Amino acid sequence: MAIAVEMPKMSDTMTEGVLVAWLADEGDTVAPGDIIAQVETDKATMDLEAYDDGVLLKKVIGEGEAVPIGGLIAVLGKAGEDPSAILAKYQGGDGAAAAPEASEAEVSTDATPSAAPAASGDGAATASASGGRIKASPLARRLAQEHGIALGSIAGSGPEGRIVKRDVEAAMSTSAAAPATAPAPVTTPAVAAPAYQPPPPIAVTGSEPAYNAVRISQMRKTIARRLAQSKYTAPHFYLTIDVDMDRMVEVRKQLNAVAEAQGTQKISFNDLITKACAAALKQHPEVNASYLEQEGEIRQYHAVHIAVAVAVDEGLVTPVIRDVDQKGLTQIAEETRALAAKARDRKLQPQEMEGSTFTTSNLGMFGIEEFTAIINPPNACILAIGGIRDVPVVKDGAIVPGKRMKVTLSSDHRVVDGAVGATFMATLRSYFEEPMTLLL
Amino acid sequence: MPEMQLREAIRQAMVEEMERDENIFLIGEEVAQYNGAYKVSQGMLDQFGEKRVIDSPISEAGFAGLGIGAALNGLRPIVEFMTWNFSFVAIDQIINNAAKVGYMSGGQFKTPIVFRGPNGAAGQLAATHNTSVEAIYAYFPGLKVISISNPDDAYGLMKSAIRDDDPVVFLESEVMYGLKGEVEVDPERLIPIGKARIAREGDDVTLVGHNKSYWVAMEVADRLAADGYSAEVIDPRTIRPFDFDTVIESVKKTNRCVIIDESNPFASISSEIAFQIQDRAFDYLDAPIRRVTAKDVPAPYAKNLIAHYMPGADDAYEACKKVMYV
After folding, report:
1. Is the pTM value of this prediction over 0.80?
2. What is the ipTM score, two decimals?
3. In chain B, N or C: fewer CB atoms in 10 Å?
4. Which residue of chain B has the CA closest to A140?
C-alpha cells in the first residue's frame, strides 16, 4: 500500500510550503525520522521527515515548487509499487498540479507536532477548531486563501465559532473602521475595491530587461502581511528619549574584562538593553501587553519574552528570548548569539519566533541615530535603538565629551497611552543611565 | 401612467392582444356571462362575443384539452382555471400534451396556449384550495411558468405569454386582484419571459420572493433598512426559465440569501434556487442560504393555524439577521 507524503503544517501561520531541496532520491529506502527534504515555510527552512518506512517511489514536486498544506509532495511504498493510485487521488478534478484544495484545517492535526503553545506568535487568535476541523464559510475560506491568512489563526464570530467574512477582513486588518457588529461591511476595504491592474510594461531598450523580477519569498509575504496588519490596525505613536550612556559604556567594559578572564560570552550593548527592557517591563505590565479585539480583552503578561529583530539575507526574523527578567546577562548574551546565528542560517524553528511580549530593533551598528519601528503584533510596543554617539554634553556647567543614545518606543495606542509610555521610558532611562541598578 | 388593479391589468393585456390577433380566445368557467369569478374578464364577452369568450362546463380536463387541440390547430387559446387548485383535474392534459407535444413531434406542432388563474393560499380556504403549484409545473420541461406580483408586470408578461409559441402557466393571486399599481400601457410593451426584476438594490443580504412573497420581502427590506442594513430584493417574475444569473450576481455582492416562498418547502422552487446558488456561487457564500416557506403540511383551515402556516415577515426578518450574523 503506497503512502502519500503531504505538506505538513509546520507553523501556525503557514499556508503553503516551498520545497527547497530534495535530500533523498527516488528509489531510496527511508525510515521514520529520516530527513527527505527541506521545506521553506513563511518563517524558516525546515526539515521534512518521513513518518513511515518505505521506498521513495515518486517525487511529486520539484525543487522550488510551492504546495499548500495537505498537498502531495511524494509517494512512499514498497520497491516497485505503482504510485499512480495516490497520484490520481491527489490530482482531483481541477487538474491543478498536485495540490488538492485540501483545507489546511483538516490536516492540521495530522503530521504536525501539536501545534501552538498558548501564547503563540499570533497569540491574538484562537482557532475555532472543534474536532480538528475549522468551521469557515466558503467565502471566508476563499478570502483567507487569497490573502495568505491561515484560518487557524483567526477566531470565528459566527455560530459555533464559524469563521465568516468579517473575521477574515478583521484579520486582513484593512477594515479597521468597520464596527464589529456590521454584517458585511458596506464599505469594502481597499483590497476588494477596483480590480487589480498590473503595472504597465516598462519600455525595454535594446536587449537589457528593465528590471529584475524577484519571486516574493514566504518570509517576505509574512513580513508584508504582519507589518501591514500592524500598521493598519494598531494606531502607532512614538516617544523618543536621548539617554546618557556614559555609565553603560563603563559597566560593559568592566563586565567584558571579567568575561574575557573567565572565557565566557562577551556582553554587547544590546544585551544590556535587553536586560534593561526586561527590568522596566516587569515594573510596567501595561506595556508588556496585547490588545486582543476578538477576545475582547487586553492581556498583561506575567512573563517577559523579548523578541530581537535580526536581519537576514531575505528579510527579517524576530527570535524570542524567553523569561529575560529571570536571566543573567551572560545567558542573555549566549542565547541571543545562538538565536541570531540560527536565524542567519535559516534554522530557527517556528516556536523560537513565537510568544514574544515585547520587541527591540537595533540599527545602531549601521550608524542610524534614531528611527521608528513598526510594532510586532500582537505586542503593544517595540523599542527602536539608535547608535551610541560621541557628543559634547554640558555637565556641571562645562562642555565635556559624552556618550548618548536615542531610543524610540512605538506604542499601540489601543493599549498604551502617552503618559503610560512616557513613564515606562523614564524607568528605562534610569536603567540605562544607572546600569548597576539592574543588579538589584 | 394609468393606475390599475391587477385584474384590470391582466384584462387590458388580454383585450389588447385579442384586438390585435383574432386567433386568440378565452375559455373557462364563468369567464363570459358572469364576467369571471374574480372579474378579470369583465366586459370581454360584450366586446368579443361568445365565439371568443367562452363559458365552459365544469370540466377542467375537457376544456384544457380542447384548448390544447385548438392551439395545435393554429389558434392561441387562453384557458382560465378558476383557481390553479382545479388544474389538477386537467394535469394530464397540461403535462403530457401541452408540455410534450412539441418535443414528441420533433417540433412539427406548437402549442401556443396560456393557462392562467389565481395560485396559492388565499386565507381560510382549507387544504384543497390553498395549493401553490409553481414547483409542480416548473418541474416539467416544455412549460414556461410565470408568477407576477404587481399590475405592471402582469400586463407586460401576459402579453409576452400570449405571443409565446410555448405553453405558458400564468400564476396570479386571488388576494392581489385588487392590488393597484401604475401600468405602462403600450400595445407593444412586452416584458421578456425569464428576466427577474431587481426591485430594490442593497448590499447586505439578497431576498428572493415572487407573487405575494415579493411583498413580504419588501416589508422585510424596510425593517432591515430601519436597522441600518440594506437588502437587495429580487422578484423573479418568471419561475421557469428562472433568471438564476440575476440572483447569483446579487449573491456574489451580498454573500447571503434568504428565499421567501409560500409553497411547501420540499422539492420546491426555493430548493432549486438554493441549489443553483451553492453550485455557482459557493465561494461567495458567507452563510448558509435560508428559506422561509409554508409549513410542510397541507394548508389548515383555522384562522390562527393558517396564519402560522404561511411564511411571514417576522420569520423572514429573523432569517435575514441569522445569515447576516447579527
Report:
1. no
2. 0.75
3. N
4. B286
